[in-house]
Design goal:
- It comes from Psychroserpens algicola.
- The termini are far apart.
- With about 80 residues, the chain is mostly helical.
- It is flat.
- Helix 1 packs antiparallel against helix 2.
- About 55% of the residues lie in helices and about 0% in strands.
Length: about 80
């Protein structure tokens, strides 16, 4: 087998994609607002944006649970 396409053990996390809690909260608010704005014109896009917002909210809440004394979120 050719190992040309095998990436097992050769990939590492992209540290540039680590966001702060404030960035995640801002992104959540933008998704919710955009979902509301396109709800009348494109329901499928609105559903996708709401789904992404829901995933972000779960991430934010899990971060708050792990470091509740260090974080301050607006929910």
């Amino acid at each position: 087998m050719n190992s040309h396409f095998c990436k097992v053990g050769k990939t590492s996390p992209n540290n540039n994609k680590i966001f702060s809690l404030k960035d995640l909260e801002d992104k959540y608010v933008r998704f919710v607002e955009e979902a509301y704005n396109v709800e009348q014109t494109d329901m499928s896009l609105s559903d996708i944006l709401r789904y992404e917002a829901k995933k972000l909210k779960q991430i934010i809440l899990s971060l708050k649970r792990t470091n509740s004394k260090d974080l301050d979120a607006a929910f």
